[in-house]
Amino acid sequence: MINVHDISMNCQLTEFVGTAVLDSIGLVIGGVDEQLHKQMGIPEKYRALGVFSSRTGAAGQITAADEAVKMTNTEVLIIDLPRDTKGWGGHGNYIVLGAENVEEARHAISLMLELTNKNAGELYISEAGHLEFAYSASAGQALHKAFQAPMHQAFGFLCGSPAAIGLVMADRALKSADVEIVSYMTPSIGTSHSNEVILAVTGDASAVKEAVLTAREIGLQLLISMGSYPEIPGIPFLE
Amino acid sequence: MINVHDISMNCQLTEFVGTAVLDSIGLVIGGVDEQLHKQMGIPEKYRALGVFSSRTGAAGQITAADEAVKMTNTEVLIIDLPRDTKGWGGHGNYIVLGAENVEEARHAISLMLELTNKNAGELYISEAGHLEFAYSASAGQALHKAFQAPMHQAFGFLCGSPAAIGLVMADRALKSADVEIVSYMTPSIGTSHSNEVILAVTGDASAVKEAVLTAREIGLQLLISMGSYPEIPGIPFLE
Amino acid sequence: MINVHDISMNCQLTEFVGTAVLDSIGLVIGGVDEQLHKQMGIPEKYRALGVFSSRTGAAGQITAADEAVKMTNTEVLIIDLPRDTKGWGGHGNYIVLGAENVEEARHAISLMLELTNKNAGELYISEAGHLEFAYSASAGQALHKAFQAPMHQAFGFLCGSPAAIGLVMADRALKSADVEIVSYMTPSIGTSHSNEVILAVTGDASAVKEAVLTAREIGLQLLISMGSYPEIPGIPFLE
Is the pLDDT of residue B2 over 90? Predict the structure, then answer.
């Protein structure tokens, strides 16, 4: 009979790249099986895949993918937002990158793992709910695909759960700076039925940053009013 | 760097109204941002919003909204049922009310917070699953919008998770009294993929009450058969 | 006022059949209420129902239903996959069987409870995620309905969460044996937004078994690489 404790935590499989915070794992497939390739409906030229997912968090990891794709010869094929967060009110993520060779895929996934650890500094998780923030000076493929961010323009993201907090953050963010909505998501619009209101905006870099920082200031006050302080799985870095 | 512990739990934001059990928060927006107003697709005349959400519970809070709207000059604009309950098998809620001024919105949200604490007395949460019950002698806007309840008629609601319990409760409730189905929801019909069967009924007030009380009697026996007693986040009041 | 502790865990309701691991409960309805019967849209001849649901697990219980239906005079009417697993990244289940009399329904549900305890031996749940495996030498109604398995042919099932693990398991399974995909499910395809990649395959019995065992070997290594060992709510039996 199988004994799971005979298996080492130090994974030796060729597909394994690494893990990161928020129950994230990064993997590669060198030459994807022909039948699976067809079923996935991905472009013919991509035989190597980078595969990433986390139980918790979406914007941080999608922003990580955005940077990783810019820095490597890869393309974003799939960005899914499973309803997860391990019992909290939001999403996890499932991201597949295409590459022409497995070294590129591995490089991109390594970058994603590293950036996921960094971006987790703008995730705030209390007993009552959570907040997530992201900013990019120049949106690339992943942010475009996931949130309709205009390419090469500044991108800001804010998310609050329970959803009521997200709506007030969105209102304050839009009032604080001259930015334009690119995505507006609610429990019944665009999410996987998460308990969140999400806003993504574009505009001048300084205005977008200001909108995100305003949302963070307001969101933290509202989240903390619910009676517990958030844990932060990284180091806050937006300022 | 931001230090979340510098932020007081005693929220001073003008949007803050209060909190209630089940990780509920009630907020208002005085004059909603123009761009957000358009994105939300809400009627022109409502510039003030009441915003409410909970991580856990739906019928109790929607019934609270129903009463609050009757007692104030507000209208129900959004009722969403995120898949939540903090790891349990049901829904949270996200409710937006429209008002012509912020005082009316604040009054309605205050009433909702108070009634949410009361209605939580008919929520039963064990290690295995949960039950929720609601009753109104005269359904208003919110119950009509959420569950197709006929306006001004008696309304009864029952919900059981895991879903099998809900179906048997529904069967017994319908056999116990002369009531008519107005909503029937399952993991694949009408819910956000929750593990529940939900039934809402209308009819004569005494019949509707009888159906709900029968469902509660049967549901509790089945839930408790699973090996743990439910916690009740309020004081049971239906009788 | 109702006191829930007055209610016995030893349920005496005629509908009660029993419970099983994974917060599973099995119930029957002898003569389903006329109004409910119509609302459910089930065939006229089935007045007796077997009703089953679990907070956690799908393939094991659907395989249990598959066997139970073969061994009794019942038919599968509903298989739903609520997004559940009590805070983990996958599904629970809600299964309704039709029977012409309640004894048949009770017999089928008893078999399902017993087989659910057995099949739980191929469910692996760690702090980070979970894996589930199933195998049938000859798929019947339930596996056909849920996963499009060809009737009377061998059926293999593998599921990994977070989803990235599932994709690599699927790739390795398909490379390991001459099998054909019958279902491919991801957070946005076929699931209820779970954080899983699921593959179901058919083919020669030995090839299907080989594919499932390969997936288990790979999946366990990847899941354990995330830093915790899985618990198994039964005894592993596939070999």
Answer: no
